[in-house]
Every structure is written in C-alpha cells, then in structure tokens.
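Table 4 source record.
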Amino acid sequence: MIISRAEVASAISAYRTVKRKPSVASVAYDTADSFVRSEAAASIQTFVTAATAEPFYRSDLVEDLRHRIAEGRYFVPTEEIVEKLLGRLIVNAAM
C-alpha cells in the first residue's frame, strides 16, 4: 500500500481534532483524579512531534527543481510518468 504524505497529515490532523474534544467521562471526573501517560503513549507523542516538526519536503531539492523548471532544464522521461500513473491506477483499483 502506498501512503502519501497528505494522508499522513490528514491522519495527524484527525488525531489532533479528536484529542482536543473533551470526552463526557473526563468532564465528570473529580479534580482529585490524576492522569499518567503510559510509555507507549509518550513514545507515540514523541513520534508525532518529530514527524510534524520538519516540513514534508526538502527545501534545497525544491529550490533546485524550481530553478531547473524556470530555466527549462527539467525533464521527466515519459516512461517514468506512465509507470507512476499505472502504478497509482493499480493501487486505486485494488482498494
């Protein structure tokens, strides 16, 4: 399965939205209750923080491509384009 960066960003966004909404059970608790995060939850939070701290692209590569496109020096072989299109069609058809 191919998971795009947009799908990862969407999943993280959905997770953050659900995380912000207080549940009915958490509102009903007494103030003396406490919360202790498990090691697994802490490691997931560390992963999410690390994954969202960096941009989803390499700025040096993007700038190089931008200059090459502007100068007319960027070329993608037709075979590569066709392979990617067909690969995506096969993945989408399997879903």
